[in-house]
């Protein structure tokens, strides 16, 4: 069967009058958010560990059943503070198939990302590949819970413990996800969540460092506020990575509605799943049986040998006002400044996923009927 060119007929009207995009922010309680912001302004306490930040930390910790949550300015800052707090040094083993910001966060604080391949079943760091890459220079492991799908946590923890390495999880995609019926947040030395506007539960910008380690939590709190231990006493080098009250207000209002958003996204996934069943060369990424996820990400894998290529399919969808993204093309190991010969180890699964993956719209911007329509567009394109 010939591959579809992906070009829509000239002069046709898109099926969707308003563009449906990946990463459109969810604003679940605008009035509640405004009320919380108004209260912060009346208090005239807008940053520096304000009441809303403290409340968010308490509620996020309870939601993820973890001892400590420390709110920070961004998920990126959270990764940097956590890496410092748990004592990462030298080479950090991490997936090449992740957002380049994960690698940047380590590089910015003087660590060296060493990229490993991922598992085709989970799209997350492949434990045997991690073990193969450990050397005397290795000073930590950084694994990403991708699409809300938890990593192979127990295997990674066993490797880290056996080699005496700190283990950090990038949980940017994974608010509300669980591994073997346990909510993420307390695994490894620490886990870092993102509250960026594109995430399921967002605080405009922001992040949360979660840990069950009292010492790690205290170190992160010091590091996010210049190292201050009192009004004018500094314990060491720190930085300004505090969350402000407005971001905390947005995150609190959204977190209160997590169950409603999750149910909505589950309905979107169900519509995609039904509409995309049994299409040759196209499959919807599903969570592994031992885990559950937040369902904020609807991800397709488009085979190299199917009737339509991934990029041609994106053109077909764009012609109908469905704007998708290819993640995480071309892979961290092929992105400047990391595209150097030493990083060009064999990463076949990463390479295949970079050619195959496309993220579809989810969230409050669309209904289950919209998802059914998008699935029908894909099915027709694949059968062209």
Shape: globular
Helix content: 25-40%
| CATH fold-level topology of the largest domain | Aspartate Aminotransferase, domain 2
What's the name of the CATH homologous superfamily of the largest domain?
Answer: Type I PLP-dependent aspartate aminotransferase-like (Major domain)
For the secondary structure, the number of strands is: 15
At CATH's second level, what is the architecture of the largest domain? 3-Layer(aba) Sandwich
Order of helices and strands: EHHEHEHEHEHEEEEEHHHEEEHEHEH
Query: Which runs of at least 5 residues are low in confidence (pLDDT < 50)?
Result: 1-11
Count every helix, treating DSSP H or I runs of 4 or more residues as helices.
12
Give the N-terminus to C-terminus distance in angstroms: 8 Å
Q: What is the level 1 CATH name of the largest domain?
A: Alpha Beta
Strand order of the largest sheet: 2-10-9-6-5-3-4
Mean pLDDT equals 94
């Amino acid at each position: 069967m010939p591959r579809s060119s992906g070009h829509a007929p000239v002069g046709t009207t898109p099926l969707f009058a308003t563009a449906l995009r990946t990463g459109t922010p969810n604003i679940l309680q605008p009035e509640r958010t405004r009320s919380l912001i108004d209260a912060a302004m009346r208090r005239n306490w807008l940053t520096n560990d304000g009441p809303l930040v403290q409340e968010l930390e308490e509620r996020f910790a309870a939601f993820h059943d973890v001892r400590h949550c420390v709110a920070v300015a961004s998920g990126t800052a959270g990764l940097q503070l956590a890496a410092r707090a748990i004592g990462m040094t030298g080479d950090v083993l991490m997936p090449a198939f992740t957002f380049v910001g994960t690698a940047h966060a380590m590089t910015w604080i003087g660590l060296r990302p060493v990229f490993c391949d991922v598992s085709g079943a989970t799209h997350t760091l492949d434990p045997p590949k991690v073990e193969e890459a450990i050397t005397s220079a290795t000073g930590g492991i950084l694994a990403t819970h991708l699409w809300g799908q938890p990593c192979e946590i127990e295997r990674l923890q066993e490797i880290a413990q056996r080699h005496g390495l700190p283990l950090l999880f990038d949980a940017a995609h994974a608010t509300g996800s669980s591994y073997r019926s346990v909510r993420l947040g307390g695994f490894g030395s620490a886990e870092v969540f993102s509250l960026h506007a594109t995430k399921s539960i967002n605080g405009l910008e922001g992040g949360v460092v979660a840990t069950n380690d009292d010492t790690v939590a205290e170190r992160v709190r010091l590091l996010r506020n210049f190292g201050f231990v009192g009004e004018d006493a500094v314990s060491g080098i720190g930085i300004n990575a505090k969350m402000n009250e407005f971001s905390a207000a947005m995150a609190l209002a959204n977190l209160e509605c997590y169950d409603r958003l999750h149910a909505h996204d589950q309905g979107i996934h169900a519509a995609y799943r039904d509409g995309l069943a049994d299409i040759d060369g196209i499959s919807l990424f599903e969570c592994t049986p031992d885990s559950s996820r937040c369902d904020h990400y609807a991800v397709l894998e488009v085979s190299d040998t199917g009737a339509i290529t991934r990029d041609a399919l994106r053109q077909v969808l764009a012609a109908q006002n469905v704007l998708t993204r290819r993640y995480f093309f071309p892979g961290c190991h092929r992105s400047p400044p990391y595209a150097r010969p030493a990083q060009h180890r064999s990463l076949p699964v990463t390479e295949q996923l970079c050619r195959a993956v496309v993220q579809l719209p989810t969230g409050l911007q669309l209904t289950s009927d919209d998802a059914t329509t998008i699935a029908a567009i894909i099915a027709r394109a694949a059968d062209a």
